[in-house]
Amino acid sequence: MRRWTIGLGASLLALSAQAGVLEGTVTDPRGKALANAVVAANAARDVRNEQGEIVRHIARTDRRGRFRLSDLPAGSYGVTATDRRYGPAFIPDVLIDKGSTVTSRRLTMAAAATVVTGEVGDRHGTLPAGSYLLIGRMSQASGDVFFADLSAGRYALALSPGNYVLIARAPGWTSAQHQLALPGGHAPARLVMHRVRGEKPALAAELLAMEARDQELRQRLAAAPDCAAIMAEMSSVDAQHALRIKAILAGHGWPDVEAVGAQASHAMWILVQHAPPELLKQSLPAMKKAAQDGELPWSSVALSIDRDLVYDGKKQLYGSQLVRNNAGKLAPGPVEDESRLDERRASVGLEPIADYLRRFDTQ
């Protein structure tokens, strides 16, 4: 799956004299000028200002549908336009040279669109300062990322058919993501962001250290799958981790993001996946509660639910647990009501099963 990130970009220099300009128009599907559409130019590399903040190049069209984006550092851009009434428009690979002005670019909105709604905020429903919402279309074109309006923490997006990832971000907060496959079943999504620093740093450090040990052993075993010594060591470490997980759940409940941060909360989930089946089953109610509170992605909980069902010899709900078929390729194990599999996957933010399986094509 292609992931959309903002960060790790180049530093912004004082380029006003050397920067380029992009001008153009946005029209509706019938060719009529579209006012108040959001136009964004997305560079292949992110640019930051002196305060380390990411510079976003965004403009709105005037009543004649015209837009002007200035101070664009030289480079290649994907240019997008969004409006609540129509599907987004996109022009890839628009080249901006130093000091140049590119004109007469026209973006025509798509007619067929599905309106997607939802909310963005912290665990209490408050929208953090500086919040913004990205919509990444999973395509091979660079810069195919749209910016959306957030009004009082709510959004309404008109999206044409395709696979998307919604990403909510704010300075000093972890990002929140939700995947969509359109057309298809989708419920309003609540994207919850959390402060980067947790309230229990000691517990966070412990969970991250346990996860690092867990992953290091599994990487060694992948490189030497028949090594009995590594298998024995991994079994011993997993047993130690299981005891500690039980103690953490008894003393803290599920370690949420506010307490330990996003990475450590995810580490807890990883450790539970490698715990004995009975501990996974015992942990599921806490995981579901954490997901309901916006502390854990439902997509992660769905994988745990499937794993628990497989342990019990039952059919999966989301098709996440794979087995090799007669052709030697990975495929989902037995699934309940396969005709609605993608619908269930979409309801918890998982991509269509065909896209999921493509990740394993080379394995």
UniProtKB/TrEMBL annotation:
<feature type="signal peptide">
    <location>
        <begin position="1"/>
        <end position="19"/>
    </location>
</feature>
<keyword id="KW-0378">Hydrolase</keyword>
<dbReference type="Pfam" id="PF13620">
    <property type="entry name" value="CarboxypepD_reg"/>
</dbReference>
<dbReference type="InterPro" id="IPR046732">
    <property type="entry name" value="DUF6624"/>
</dbReference>
<keyword id="KW-0121">Carboxypeptidase</keyword>
<dbReference type="GO" id="GO:0030246">
    <property type="term" value="F:carbohydrate binding"/>
</dbReference>
<keyword id="KW-0645">Protease</keyword>
<dbReference type="InterPro" id="IPR013784">
    <property type="entry name" value="Carb-bd-like_fold"/>
</dbReference>
<keyword id="KW-0732">Signal</keyword>
<dbReference type="Pfam" id="PF20329">
    <property type="entry name" value="DUF6624"/>
</dbReference>
<dbReference type="GO" id="GO:0004180">
    <property type="term" value="F:carboxypeptidase activity"/>
</dbReference>
<protein>
    <submittedName>
        <fullName>Carboxypeptidase regulatory-like domain-containing protein</fullName>
    </submittedName>
</protein>
